[in-house]
Every structure is written in C-alpha cells, then in structure tokens.
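--- STAGE predict ---
source: upstream dedup step, 1 unique chain passed
mode: sequence only
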Amino acid sequence: MTTTPAAPADSAPAPARSWRATAAACTTVVLWASAFVSIRSAGEAYSPGALALGRLLAGVLVLGAILLVRREGLPGRGAWRGIITSGVLWFGLYMVALNWGEQEVDAGTAAMLVNIGPILMALLGARMLGEGLPRRLLLGMGVSFSGAVVVGLAMSGHGTSSVLGVALCLLAAVVYALGVVSQKPALAYGSSLQINTFGCLIGAVACLPFTGVLISEAADAPMSATLNMIYLGVFPTALAFTTWGYALARTTAGRMGATTYAVPAIVVLMAWLLLDEVPTLLGVLGGLLCLAGVAVSRSRQQTGPTPGNPDRPVEGKRHDAEYRSARRP
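--- STAGE serialize ---
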C-alpha cells in the first residue's frame, strides 16, 4: 500500500512563494550568525555535550508546542529516513562536534574549517539528489569561501589550535552537509515544522547520555549562560531550522548552502555591535567577499519557469519520477 503525499502546503502565487523563501533564508542566516555570540557565552559554563542537549531540549519544547497548536500531526512515512538521519547527524553529532571543536581551536580556524560544509553540500546534492552544479553557484561559492578564509585569518592569532580541534571542526562540516542532503528529500513528505520537530527530538534523544552532566553544570552555571543556552534552543534551533527547511524545500541544497556564507559577514557585524569587537580591515574585506559570493550564487542565468527550475516548491509534494528526471543536468 502506497503512502499518499500531503496536499501542497503553500498555494500562494509564485512571486509570493519566492519572497517568502528568501525571507526564510535570511532569517536563518541572521539567527545562525547570532548563535556564535551565544555559544561563546554559554560555552564558558557548559561542556559541549551538555550545551547541545540543553539547546535541543529547549528547541523540542518550542517546536512541539507549535506543532500541537497547528495540529499538523506526523509527517508521511517516506519522511522518516531523512528525519532520523538528519536528526542524528545534524541536530545531534554536528552540535556536539562544533561545540567541542570551538573549545580546541581559535574562532578563525573553526570558521574556515566549518565553511567547507556548504561546498560538500553542493557536491553531495549534485551526486545524491541530481541537482547539478551551475557555473554561477560554483563561482559564487568560490568567492564566498575565499571571503570566509579571509574572515578566519582576521579572527585568528588569539588562540591555539589542536589536531583534535581541527578534526572535530572537519567532522562538523561533513555531518552538516550530510544532514542537509538527508533532510531535503524528507521535505517532500511533510512540512518544515514536522520534519524539524522530529529531527530535533531525535537529536535530543541521541544526546541523552549527557543528561547528568547538564544537570550538574546547570546547578553551578551563571544565569546569563543558561539564558544563552535557552536562546540557542528557541531561536537558532527551533525558529531558524524551521525557516531553513521552508526555504530548502523551495530550492536546491547547493544554493541554500551557498546562502549560509553570509553568516561570517554577519558575525563580524554582530561582534562589533554586541561585543564591542571592532572589525579589522581584513575582516571587513572578507565579509564583503562572502556577501558578494552569495549574491553571485543566488543570481539567475535565465528568467521564467523551466522544467529544471531549482526554485519549484516541493514542500508537501512527493518527488515523482518525472520531476526527478527533469532536475537532473
């Protein structure tokens, strides 16, 4: 017996869908950039595993409450493979590895290593999802990655890097890319809210071995660190992952990955505004390169809908054979 996919969740005209997807992607990028500031504060009181578990538990509570209010229920059966894979890899392993890696290397080195993730995402999307590698996407990602390296160099020099830290940051980049590519097909069987609620729940379950550490550290942690951990769960996790999924369902994994290259530029700006860390000329240059690369990768080489248009909305629809073949280069 075959599972019937749900009806399209978004029946708005194409220009409205495009605007909403862009707004969702921008929301994600800003909130993920803010996470670096909060992780810096919370990480002083919480160990990597405890911080990941606390963040995920806060995210599950918020997402679960919204899911109940909206009465969306369970996603289609075809979504669960992607939900479980992305939950373990992206929500669970990625957060622990990134938190741990950032304690072992300086911020600049971590930024450079983790930004390998979007490149891997584009390559995996082309290989596993048949998305193709348009020239403008490759060019834009090359420009953005060079900008991320420049930002990383500007931020380096104030700490030390260990082999373990480098390995953990590389692991975070790999599982980040694998998690996104795994989540993309799942969005054909359910809404972004459904996919991310259960993905976050699975990530929290995977991090349950850190429960004792979280309880112990929460008893001694300052209120500011705990509030930052809760903020990470509510905004960069619950809200940002949902807006990410909404936008990902309407474009390719490669183009969404390229969008995240705006994060280093926003981090430089936020560190200046919130932490009084005046950016260097090198940091500003790197941020501008990141933004320029995002603009190039998101630009279109043709106008009007085509059979291979990567912005065709697919949330709530099943990838049938005809659509999959149309997406292949």
